Amino acid sequence: MRKVLLGVVAVGMVAPFLYMVSVSFMGEGELLRWPPPLLPHAPTTGNYSAMVEVLPYARVLLNTAILAGCVMVGQVLTSAAAGYAFARLRFPGRDGIIAASLAILTIPAILLLVPRYLMIESLGWADTYPGLISTELVSVWGIFLMRQAFLMLPREVEDAARMDGAGEWSLFWRVALPMVRPAVTALALLAFLDQWRSFLWPLVITRSPRMAVADVALAHVHTTYAGNLPYQMAAAVLLTVPLLLICLCAQRYMLSGVRVTGASVRL
Amino acid sequence: MGSVTLRRLSKIFDGGIQALHDLDLDVRDGELLVLLGPSGSGKTTILRCIAGLEEPTGGDVLIGDRVVTRDPPRARDVAMVFQTPTLYPHLSVRENIAFPLEMRGTADAQVTRRVVEAATRLGIPSVLDRMPDTLSEGERQRAALARAIVRGPQAFLFDEPLSRLDAKLRIELRAELLALHRALGATMIYVTHDQTEAMTMGGGAGQRIAVLHEGRVRQVGTPEEIYQRPADVHVARFVGTPGMNVLQGRGRGTGEEGPVIEAGSLVIPVELSTYEGELQVGIRPEFVGLCAVDKGVGNVDVLVVEPLGSETLVHLNTGGQALVARLPGFADVRVGTRVGVKVDRRRLYLFDAAGVPLA
Fold this sequence. Notes:
The complex is a heterodimer. By secondary structure, chain A is an all-alpha fold. Chain A has helices at 2-24, 46-54, 57-88, 94-104, 109-122, 129-134, 140-151, 155-163, 168-179, 181-196, 200-205, 214-224, 229-262. Chain A has 2 domains: 1-44, no CATH class; 54-262, MetI-like fold, CATH 1.10.3720. Chain A has 13 helices and no strands. In chain A, helix 1 (2-24) packs antiparallel against helix 13 (229-262) and helix 12 runs antiparallel to helix 13 (229-262). The model of chain A is unreliable at 262-267 (pLDDT under 50). Chain B has 2 domains: 4-231, P-loop containing nucleotide triphosphate hydrolases (Rossmann fold, 3-Layer(aba) Sandwich), CATH 3.40.50.300; 245-352, CATH 2.40.50.140. In chain B, helix 5 (167-184) links the parallel strand 7 (155-159) and strand 8. In chain B, helix 2 (93-103) crosses helix 3 and helix 3 packs across helix 4 (137-149). Chain B is elongated.
């Protein structure tokens, strides 16, 4: 019964993807028929060749990879360092700062959009990589995830490392961080995937087509070719496939990381 | 190697719990001192204060002749082995053992040589390239020991390192630790709550036992001293398997039978001249015998009988107080029956109401 239910849910999740691929191989008029066909009558790769010409595909992929990659590295470093400090170091106001940081999560991101834009604009970073990336480098959620992971490390290992002569930095870098690798991997993947699908902030802060990232480029295709669904689907496939491959390769790490850190939530 | 000295060491934890009370302790250079005490007696707190993992509230810790009370652990040059073998799970055994040397910037060639030496001494050279999660519990603790000895610290601290091992392995590793102590001539402080282990570890030349109770050192001495001449009622109760019977009683000097001590349902004739008033009387279980009703110093009820093969432990109720008798072989005693008790009067220990021995 459980398997049947899971099967139904899985089909529900996968079907739109498959239909996207199917439509991307259809001719322009094919979808106008009723009922709409599930599979292309005469499969064509024409939509793809058209889209590769229209989209600055390599450039869009590069921009998206730079954004997602830099944010991933940045979030892992900042979250790990801050998470370790919140979990293991003693300093005045520590718990207050954690609570305040968590409270930030309750503010809708859209409220911060304009202040962020004004700040980046005043720095002269609009429509540049620093502008696109800098405000995404710290993630409160990531800090919390890493804090939980560090809290779960046995105290005795930390004590043993101190006895072995490790200072605070060695303790963090050589002992604690490698021990929370599942959480680091999960955070890295989730940050990467999140940024790959990022739309609103890149839409606001970038202007020129050479700075477009995947979802923004896709939106342009959508408005430009509003009536041509096969074109839109071909563009969507082109920009989704890299993400899909990463997901498939890394899902094991994502699950184990979330499982490890989600097992115990303390504040 | 160096001596370890504690001067008026006290530790009060958050919440006001006082774990150590103005504690003085001298561990001589090259000595193996066993810290013995029940749970919560402050043994581990002492070790952690010596190690620098815990900051004492008052008093001083000296290693060699250097005061290290406020120094971080890495500046103290002591090694510690924990109850749970704490290997770094992401490093191989070789990397684990090398870790303290790397932290001190030891040259690579020397690291390689010393790691192999330490592993060979502990009998684990064949597992050097394995990961900790593939090792047995014994191998893990051996690797942790190798990591402790590899840098030749001034003193070793052992926090119940064998308590998680099975009995056979525990005996084996205990012997190895003693051999290690002899070979290295190192200052070692060994914490345990198991007094059989304490007696074994503290029984050799240059080895002593310190008995702790509620954050205070009650007695420091050889196993024989603490067994035969306990410094107070806590030591008497704790040392021995089972510990000494201590009955609350009252001395009476003018009875028909002459001077006696009344404790529970027992009336024990004594030869002391000063014993009037409240006191506590201690009798080791091996000096408690059973006899027919009304033939001994009092009658008791048999509560539990534990036949252990070479001996039988009989738990008795004497007027609401517990008394244990250790009888040789399989004793013919039935639970629920009433029997008489004999005690060896020359083997009585008398303590005042506060637990201090009466002269």
